[in-house]
Amino acid sequence: MSETHRSVIIIGSGPAGYTAALYTARASLHPLLIDGGPGLGQAMQGQGGQLTITSEVENYPGFPEGIMGPDLMARMREQVARFGTEFVEEIATRVDLSQRPFTVWVRDDVYRADVLILATGASARWLGLDAEKPVWEGGLGGAGVSACATCDGPMPVFRDKELIVVGGGDTAAEEALFLTHFASHVYLVHRRDALRASQIMQKRLFENPKITVLWNKVVTEIHSVTEKRVTGVTLRDTTNGEETLRECSGVFIAIGHKPNSDLFVGQLDLDPNGYVVTHNEVRTSVRGVFACGDLQDHEYRQAITAAGSGCMAAIQAERYLAAEGAGSTPEW
Ligand code: NDP
User: Fold this and answer.
1) Which CATH number fits domain 126-253: 3.50.50.60, 3.40.50.300, 3.90.470.10, 3.40.50.2020?
2) In terms of CB atoms within 10 Å, which end of the chain has fewer, N or C?
3) Same fold for the pair 3-123+257-325 and 126-253
4) Cα separation, 155 vs 193, whole angstroms
5) Residues 235, 221: Cα–Cα separation, whole Å
6) Is residue 302 in contact with ligand 1, taking CB distance under 6 Å?
7) How far, in Å, from the CA of 201 to the mean position of ligand 1?
């Protein structure tokens, strides 16, 4: 057991956590970053977060040729290390936000922080099929199964192909519409006979001739993922149990995300879906605790927006500490 005290501790090492580390390190705040450890792929993300299980990232500015998700995260890590960020390569197991300094436990080791920046991200929900496992473990977006159309949709393997999107919410609707820019046709597979998506998104879906909704259907099997490509899915009708095979070249799972906020339940205000509620961009319900990235953003969920909010959290943390250091009560 050890005990450490820092001005700034950051939990989480996706684009939000790394950017918060970069800014606080360059502000000479000597941040400590608890990075989640090596992780277990998408089922349980560690260092680098969700981007480590995607393939090519083409929408992060500054990389005109695109960059592989794991490479982007490795470069971010290298950059924050260069400015003296110290890493704890483990998962934070418990926090106490009831008094300052705040306490974070990593097993029996105790870390105390004057300000905390939470950047634990979110995890895509999966159907639980065996065929999805290679994606959790290694990032086979290019092989045909993905939880992010924005990330993987524009890849050549999906061009002019028939694709499937699973889900009935706004994300599924948005992904289906986005994929019509590349696919020859998109089938939206939904388990009920009514969508959860907003009316405006439903209208856009129904008006798009390249989208067909397959009602009352669930995907029970994805075929040929082991050969690193998708050839089709088995669909089960939820009303009569009948199974059918549908050929396709890609399956996009869009059944929602789960913010990684279990650690903060009962200590921070969370919205009904478990996202940390923030005001003034990155301030949580507890003074001195900032949250950034997908942990508090269910709308944009992009690497660049996460990085942007990590920057905001770092700048606000720096101002908070400076105000305290000058003897005034920091704004909240
Ligand atoms: P939602 O929880 O809204 O929708 C999830 C969908 O997946 C539901 O239709 C649900 O079915 C289906 N689903 C869940 N589990 C399974 C399963 N195991 N098998 C098959 N289907 C399943 O998540 P979203 O990510 O779509 O949206 C999250 C929030 O973000 C919402 O508030 C949404 O409005 C918002 N959002 C807004 C956008 C915008 O405004 N542009 C864009 C994207 C998201 P069922 O309906 O039967 O429960």
Assistant:
1) 3.50.50.60
2) N
3) yes
4) 31
5) 7
6) no
7) 12
**Best residue for ligand 1 mutational test, from 298, 302, 305 (most atoms within 8 Å of Cβ):** 298
What distance in Å separates the CA atoms of residue 235 and residue 220, rounded to the nearest whole number? 6
Ligand 1 centroid – CA 326 distance (Å)? 46
What are the residue boundaries of the structural domains of the chain, listed by start?
Answer: 3-123+257-325, 126-253
Tell me the CA end-to-end span of the chain in Å, nearest whole number. 34
What tokens does 53 get?
A: 């299980």
Q: How far is the CA of 215 from the centre of ligand 1 (A)?
A: 15
> Could you give the CA distance from residue 248 to residue 276 in angstroms, rounded to a whole number?
37
Q: Name beta bridge partners: 221.
A: 234
- Mean pLDDT, 10 residues at a time, the chain of 332 residues: 95 97 97 85 66 78 92 96 95 96 96 98 89 64 77 87 96 93 97 96 97 98 81 97 96 92 97 96 98 95 95 98 94 93
